[in-house]
Design goal:
Strand content: 25-35%
Number of helices: 3
Strand order of the largest sheet: 2-1-3-4
Largest sheet: 4 strands, mixed
Order of helices and strands: HEHEEEH
Number of strands: 4
Structural class: alpha+beta
Length: 89
Amino acid sequence: MQFIANSYVTLYRQQKNVIRGRLITAAAVTPATEQKMRQMVEGKTNGTVEFESEVDPDIIGGFILEYDTYRMDASVKTKLNSILTQLSK
């Protein structure tokens, strides 16, 4: 029964062009900032976005935006790891 319910939800989202998105930040964002991110994603996908916001202090700063198969990682942690990789070469 659970499989059927999940399949229905997936088909419904495809039919109505509803995209699931996730915004991960180091600190809680204001509703205005979340709305701007939602509008940006909706503009790029021409669909409606179901947005989840998540706070993860481990990313130090910045944000990670995921939707559909797209991932934008603008976190400080990733930038620092990139610098560290470049310096170790």
